[in-house]
Predict the structure of Transcription factor IBH1.
Amino acid sequence: MNRKNPLPNSNPNSPNSSMQALHFLQALARIARAAPKPAHSARTRQIRHAAYASMAHSSRSSRRTWSRALLHRLRQWQQQRPGRLLTVRRRVRIVTPITSRPEEPARAETLRQLVPGGRGMEYCNLLEETADYVQCLRAQVQLMQTLLDAFSS
């Protein structure tokens, strides 16, 4: 079976893709307008963070665990940038060790590590989150390829 579009909802013209493109282009414009031009590695990191943030903001639902986890990670990165005062708050958390559940495949643990926020999820929820995350990653790749084609020609 040779289909062009393996995921039925991965339409590049969907509202989510256009919102992702809008968020990403606005973030790129902010990076370009920055007064002191950062070093190449810092600029690369800023672009990567902008891509992740636009992907998380444009996800179908803000209730998706991966998008909230990704935005939380980006906020932490912003707070830890040099030149800012950082107040450290410590939470006491009781963490139960994550063990493989016998009814789940061994690959579930690997999947939990790949999907942001997937560590404490049940298997069915993990699969739903993974499908949504992969769909957004696919839209992000299509967006990057479109931008690359537009700017290279």
